[in-house]
């Protein structure tokens, strides 16, 4: 009697699993899910990706060790790297992200606002490791810990940074970094007007 009952439950579980596998394979093989980036993710998919991403970063960033306070040099260094590698997708105070990045799904958030949601350790982890299935690259593969710490220091300060501060920081950051000025804008003249970048 109980043995029969147990066998029934086992069959029920196996049956449910088979149905789940069938649904999964049907979605994958029939092309039912629209992968077009011109179309928004379905709400359930968006929720799953968001929640998975937040929980995963929270769980894994615990081992990141950062200095108690960030020096001005570190922030300026990070600002230079940010202007080189991140601003296209994430924008900056007074600077919109590029048009092509608005066509990405998920759309890279304006970090001037979104950075406030993350701790410095989490930002470090995200920049080092990137985020699968989102287009956020892993910078740890070709940037050293110091560069990533600089980026972290700068991104942590992005919320609340004014366009003037950003321009001042990226100007000095580019000049201070060893030979990597992103644009040929190195005219050290006294009355250099902050001309709008031509694009
Ligand atoms: C090619 C575009 C691209 C570039 C370049 C890029 N990112 Fe991202 N980044 C993304 C996308 C897309 C996400 C969003 C992921 C999501 O919401 O699922 C993201 C997410 C993030 C997040 C988490 C913010 C949030 O709330 O989702 C941080 C922090 C971040 N990026 C920092 C950086 C930094 C710092 C750089 C430069 C070193 C950088 N990114 C370069 C595309 C990019």
Textual characterization of the structure:
The protein is mainly alpha-helical and 199 residues long. It folds into 2 domains: 1-33; 43-176, Orthogonal Bundle (Cytochrome Bc1 Complex, Chain D, domain 2), CATH 1.10.760. It has 8 helices and no strands. The chain has helices at residues 2-30, 43-60, 72-85, 87-90, 111-114, 120-129, 145-157, 163-176. The longest helix is centred in the N-terminal third of the chain and has 29 residues, at 2-30. The protein starts with a helix and ends in a 23-residue tail after the last helix. Residues 172-196 have low confidence and may be disordered. Bound molecules: heme C.
Brief rundown of the structure:
It contains eight helices and no strands. It has 199 residues and is an all-alpha fold.
What average pLDDT do the residues reach? 87
Total separate domains: 2
Q: Helical element count?
A: 8
Order of helices and strands: HHHHHHHH
Stated plainly, the CATH topology of the largest domain is called Cytochrome Bc1 Complex, Chain D, domain 2
**Which homologous superfamily in CATH is the superfamily of the largest domain?**
Cytochrome c-like domain
* Biggest sheet character: none
Strand portion, in percent?
under 5%
CATH class of the largest domain: Mainly Alpha
Bound molecules: heme C
Q: How many strand segments?
A: 0
Rg over CA atoms: 23 Å
Poorly predicted regions are 172-196
Residues in helices, as a percent range: 40-55%
CATH architecture tag of the largest domain: Orthogonal Bundle
Return the structural class: mainly alpha
**Global geometry:** elongated
């Amino acid at each position: 009697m109980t043995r029969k009952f147990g066998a029934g439950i086992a069959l029920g579980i196996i049956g449910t699993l088979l149905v789940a596998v069938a649904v999964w394979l049907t979605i994958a093989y029939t092309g039912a899910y629209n992968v077009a980036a011109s179309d928004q993710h379905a709400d359930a998919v968006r929720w799953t990706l968001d929640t998975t991403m937040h929980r995963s970063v929270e769980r894994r960033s615990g081992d990141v060790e950062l200095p108690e306070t960030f020096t001005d040099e570190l922030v300026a260094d990070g600002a230079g790297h940010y202007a080189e590698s991140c601003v296209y997708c994430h924008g900056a105070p007074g600077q919109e992200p590029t048009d092509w990045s608005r066509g990405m799904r998920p759309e890279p958030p304006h970090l001037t606002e979104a950075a406030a949601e993350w701790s410095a350790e989490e930002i470090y982890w995200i920049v080092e490791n990137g985020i699968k299935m989102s287009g956020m690259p892993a910078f740890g593969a070709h940037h050293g810990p110091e560069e990533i710490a600089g980026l972290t220091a700068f991104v942590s300060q992005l919320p609340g940074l004014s366009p003037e501060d950003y321009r001042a920081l990226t100007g000095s950051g580019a000049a201070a970094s060893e030979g990597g000025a992103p644009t040929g804008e190195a005219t050290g003249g006294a009355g250099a007007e902050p001309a709008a970048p031509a694009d």
